[in-house]
């Protein structure tokens, strides 16, 4: 937890929004125990591949049912991505990277979870961690594992698109 405002948390007068932000940050950092520590993303020579996968998976996992710690806390209903993003100010090069890593990347994993289902997603993530524990992985490794996880994957994409049109 490297955010200064969280160093003395919780404060007696803290807002619900700050508490939720703290919880999401805590769960994100805990997810790094698997995605970033146990499985190391390739190298920072391939920095984009490394950072987007580690941060996006950790952000996605932070939103996945953290009720283990507090049954009243369920961030799974809180979308990772808002419907619209407004460009408030020119933030330099950092802002586009942060948006991709912390919003768009996790949104891809949310869509993948919706597409292949929670059980298959869990199987995919477990196999990813198991296959690459104490090793390095990159995006192509994740995609290759996704393609192997279930032979019905292509059919599910077609069913997903069809179901979206029906609703």
From TrEMBL:
<dbReference type="GO" id="GO:0008270">
    <property type="term" value="F:zinc ion binding"/>
</dbReference>
<protein>
    <submittedName>
        <fullName>Peptidase M1 membrane alanine aminopeptidase domain-containing protein</fullName>
    </submittedName>
</protein>
<dbReference type="InterPro" id="IPR014782">
    <property type="entry name" value="Peptidase_M1_dom"/>
</dbReference>
<dbReference type="GO" id="GO:0016020">
    <property type="term" value="C:membrane"/>
</dbReference>
<dbReference type="GO" id="GO:0070006">
    <property type="term" value="F:metalloaminopeptidase activity"/>
</dbReference>
<feature type="domain" description="Peptidase M1 membrane alanine aminopeptidase">
    <location>
        <begin position="6"/>
        <end position="158"/>
    </location>
</feature>
<dbReference type="GO" id="GO:0005737">
    <property type="term" value="C:cytoplasm"/>
</dbReference>
<dbReference type="GO" id="GO:0042277">
    <property type="term" value="F:peptide binding"/>
</dbReference>
<dbReference type="GO" id="GO:0005615">
    <property type="term" value="C:extracellular space"/>
</dbReference>
<dbReference type="GO" id="GO:0043171">
    <property type="term" value="P:peptide catabolic process"/>
</dbReference>
<dbReference type="InterPro" id="IPR027268">
    <property type="entry name" value="Peptidase_M4/M1_CTD_sf"/>
</dbReference>
<dbReference type="Pfam" id="PF01433">
    <property type="entry name" value="Peptidase_M1"/>
</dbReference>
<dbReference type="InterPro" id="IPR050344">
    <property type="entry name" value="Peptidase_M1_aminopeptidases"/>
</dbReference>
């Amino acid at each position: 937890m490297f955010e200064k405002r969280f160093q003395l948390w919780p404060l007696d007068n803290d807002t619900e929004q700050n508490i939720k932000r703290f919880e999401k940050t805590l769960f994100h950092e805990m997810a790094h125990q698997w995605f970033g520590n146990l499985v190391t993303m390739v190298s920072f020579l391939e920095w984009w591949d490394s950072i987007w996968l580690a941060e996006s998976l950790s952000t996605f996992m932070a939103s996945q049912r953290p009720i283990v710690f507090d049954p009243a806390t369920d961030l799974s209903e809180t979308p990772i991505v808002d419907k619209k993003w407004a460009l408030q100010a020119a933030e330099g090069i950092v802002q586009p990277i942060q948006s991709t890593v912390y919003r768009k990347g996790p949104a891809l994993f949310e869509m993948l979870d919706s597409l292949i289902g929670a059980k298959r997603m869990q199987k995919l993530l477990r196999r990813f961690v198991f296959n690459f524990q104490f090793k390095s992985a990159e995006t192509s490794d994740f995609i290759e594992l996704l393609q192997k996880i279930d032979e019905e994957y292509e059919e599910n994409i077609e069913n997903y698109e069809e179901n979206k049109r029906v609703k």
